Amino acid sequence: MVKKNSMGCGYYVVVLVLLFFGATIVRSDSSDHKYKNGEEVPLYANKVGPFHNPSETYRYFDLPFCSPGHVKDKTEALGEVLNGDRLVTAPYKLDFLSDRETEVVCKKSLSKEEVARFRDAVAKDYYFQMFYDDLPIWGFIGKVDKEGKSDPSEYKYYLFKHLHFDIHFNNDRVIEVNARTDPNALVDITEDKEVDVDFMYSVKWKETDIPFEKRMEKYSQTSALPHHLEIHWFSIINSCVTVLLLTGFLATILMRVLKNDFVKYAHDEEAADDQEETGWKYIHGDVFRYPKRNSLFAAALGSGTQLFTLTIFIFTLALVGVFYPYNRGALFTALVVIYALTSGIAGYTAASFYCQLEGKNWVRNLLLTGGLFCGPLFLTFCFLNTVAIAYHATAALPFGTIVVIFLIWALVTSPLLVLGGIAGKNSKAEFQAPCRTTKYPREIPQLPWYRGALPQMAMAGFLPFSAIYIELYYIFASVWGHRIYTIYSILFIVFIILIIVTAFITVALTYFQLAAEDHEWWWRSFLCGGSTGLFIYGYCLYYYYARSDMSGFMQTSFFFGYMACICYAFFLMLGTVGFRAALFFVRHIYRSIKCE
Which Gene Ontology cellular-component terms appear in the entry (predicted)? Predict the structure, then answer.
């Protein structure tokens, strides 16, 4: 027994050590370089794409910009590649403290086809993104003149040909960089004809007293403006009121009802032992009857527990400041690494619970656990990656990155899943049931329609969703837009509220189900807990059509494809929370009465 516990402790020590090193690697991306006067500071062009379609991005030089003699790709981390970043050397020279006045990058004669490509990009509000000393730079590549014109065929399309860089420095460090286009330096690309363009740029250096350690605060402050914080705190207060009302209502109702039930059942036992039982005590011999498809149920619990652990670790890293703005790919790196390292938790939970339910084929259960979430995610990725390849977008993962992810799955995720499963099988834990289960199940009485699974799921999912829907907009605007989200403390509070509301509403619905003498509560509690994920996916439809300007097959596929995976993850995680809360409640009430 001691040996087994030491193995478990050793596993978690290894996990924590690897997480520490993973966090260190994630943070090491930020530049911390000191420069001398005239020294070259690295400037990388990243990508271009339609402003309203964040997933549809292309390499910078997919458009016929001025190209340096030798385009060199920057070596990127796993998270940067997953984020769609493809950094290459830019054609501009921004040496430290070297001002430049109207420098010509190149003189280029654009063919009809190149003019048409630029015009199409300008019509779709293409933006560009660069990184200078790891500081982000954005700008639009052109503009559409619609003034006084009602017919789209009369619109004028212009390409910006002059880019001005304002760079702030403090001693030998780069602190801030901004890029703006010259509104007077335009090239008319309305017609399909060859155009000669002189691409130019200028640089102005300015001194600032902002310390290097605070140079990223400019980006994080945008999501912490007073009017934004007021909305966030309104969301928190709204959620807290929901929690307090729900908690108070449930505590009052359940405590009073349960107290009456306990008094009634105790009186019945004293008065007449042969009197027929009613209510939830009547089904005490069936309430702990193991659920149908116990292998799938245990696998869902294992996957949900792993995803809950993953979420807690991600919040921990966010709260200690790892995911500062424009730490490129840090979140994706953390998600891949932590998911791989926590797969042992899924294996242990699923195998242990499956054996408690007297399951025999634990190997098949382990395979089901490994594929329950990864399977749909893999199929979604294959489809979306094929779409990205067809569009020649940067969202298409290179073959080398796919190999790396496969190796992580084969060498880390799968072995840890198997080790966790073996440990779970050998735990020899028995299911703690206060009442003995009868040999034959009782027949469930005919119940009204609103006590069915779907109406109960609708009721169970609405309250938790109502507690988080205000915060959802900001999260969507950050993930599927260009808004920066850094208020992780508020998000963590909302997450805690979500967990509490999910647990309470599932407990309440489980009690009403048992009181109606319906003993098949196992799957129902899981489905009711996870139903919030379905509401979030419903919100995706609303956000896409009412709150965003996303369009096109690729962007639509990416939005609904990956949001389906995220909502499925919420379904598994919150379903696990709901079942665990219901199981704790059911054990408690049946332990409080005498069961023959």
Answer: endosome membrane; Golgi membrane
Q: What is the pLDDT of residues 13-63, one digit of tens each?
A: 444 444 444 444 444 445 567 899 999 999 999 999 999 999 999 999 999
Element (DSSP H or E) covering residue 29: none
114 shares a domain with 93: yes
As a whole number of angstroms, the distance between CA 213 and CA 234 comes to 32
Of 207 and 280, the structure prediction assigns the larger pLDDT to 207
Q: Characterize 198-226 residue by residue with b for buried, 16 or more Cβ atoms within 10 angstroms of its Cβ, and e for exposed.
A: ebbbbbebeeeeeebeebbeeebeebeee
Residues 206 and 312 occupy one common structural domain? no
Tell me, yes or no, whether 132 and 166 share the same domain: yes
Residues 506 and 420 in one domain: yes
Task: Answer whether residue 592 shows pLDDT above 80.
Answer: no
In angstroms, rounded to a whole number, what is the distance separating the alpha carbons of residues 573 and 380? 19
* Calpha distance 321→546 (Å, rounded): 33
Q: At what angle do helices 522-530 and 294-319 cross, to 10 degrees?
A: 30
Q: Is residue 3 part of a domain?
A: no
Cβ neighbours, 10 Å, residue 265: 18
Q: What is the C-alpha to C-alpha distance for residues 314 and 322, in angstroms, rounded to an integer?
A: 10
Average pLDDT score over the chain: 87
Residue 101: left (phi > 0), alpha (psi -120 to 50), or beta? Answer: beta
pLDDT in tens, 491-508: 999 999 899 999 999 998
Rg (CA), the chain: 29
**206 and 231 fall within a common domain:** no
Residue 358 sits in the same domain as residue 446:
yes
Domain tally for the chain? 2
Residues 163 and 209 in one domain: yes
Both 204 and 231 in a single domain?
Answer: no
Domain assignment present for residue 92? The answer is yes
Domain termination site, one of 196, 221, 246: 221
pLDDT tens per residue across span 469-482 = 888 988 999 899 88
Helix (H), strand (E) at residue 185: none
> What are 289's two structure tokens?
């009857």
Q: Among 455, 528, 461, 544, which Cα is nearest to 498's?
A: 461
Specify the DSSP element, H or E, that contains 286: none
Q: Is 41 left (phi over 0), alpha (psi -120 to 50) or beta?
A: beta
Task: Quote the CA–CA distance of 508 and 585 in Å, as a whole number.
Answer: 9
Confidence (pTM) = 0.89
Please give the residue range of the domain that contains residue 159.
39-221
Q: With contact defined as beta carbons under 8 Å apart, do 112 and 193 qualify?
A: yes
Rounded CA-CA distance 51/43 in Å is: 22
